[in-house]
Specification:
- By secondary structure, the chain is mainly α.
- The protein contains six helices and no strands.
């Protein structure tokens, strides 16, 4: 027994996936080799916006590094003046020099600790292929910490009239610190700055939580 043919239906494209309007997409990260990561739900996007996710973390990283570069250059200049027997303008020759060294070391240590506890775990979770790089950067932090500990001891012990051997020791520690820091900063900026900008919402953690701040007094 034949059945009556089904009546033709009007095509309805309103709910066909291929006809839905594509939502506007944000620009892709500059580092094209980085994974895009899981898509955020509307709820998570609203949460990220509500907590004011820090923008341009890569630029923040470079700005902190540039401030530390400037501070180290000033410290080296003050040490040179002292070793040459010429007091730095506006400073006494010994205690302020030691204080400047401690200030710089505190700022650098704060930056590295914030990265170790904040930015690095987030990057390792979001971009697994960066884990070897992050491990190398964390190893650099340990090496820099050892050099800074020696530097603090050396600078604190600079006599009013240092001998040639003492002057060479101080210059050697400063030269070593400056060399490894510049290598570390440059490598870090090239390898993770774009990844920092590509991180999804970081909750209530600020740029200072993830990277530290330029000045230890601003924490």
């Amino acid at each position: 027994m034949s059945s009556a043919p089904a009546e033709p239906r009007e095509p309805d494209d309103r709910h066909h996936p291929s006809h839905e309007a594509e939502p506007a997409r944000p620009p892709q990260p500059a580092a094209s080799t980085l994974p895009a990561g899981p898509a955020e739900s509307p709820e998570s996007a609203e949460s990220a916006a509500a907590t004011s996710r820090p923008a341009a973390l890569g630029r923040e990283l470079v700005e902190i590094h540039d401030w530390l570069r400037t501070e180290l250059a000033q410290l080296r200049a003050e040490v040179e003046l002292h070793l040459d027997g010429r007091p730095s303008p506006g400073r006494q020759p010994s205690r302020p020099l030691t204080a400047h060294c401690l200030y710089f070391c505190a700022a650098l240590t704060g930056h590295h600790r914030a990265e170790d506890a904040g930015a690095f775990p987030l990057l390792a979770e979001e971009f697994p292929q960066l884990r070897p790089t992050i491990e190398k950067l964390a190893e650099d932090h340990l090496l820099v910490g050892e050099i800074m500990a020696r530097l603090e001891t050396v600078v604190a012990g600079i006599p009013a009239t240092p001998s040639d051997a003492e002057a060479r020791r101080v210059r050697g520690e400063l030269d070593g610190l400056a060399a490894i820091l510049e290598s570390h900063f440059t490598f870090e900026e090239k390898r993770i700055a774009a990844a920092l900008d590509a991180l999804p919402g970081t909750g209530r953690r600020t740029a200072a939580d993830l990277l530290g701040t330029a000045s230890p007094d601003s924490r």
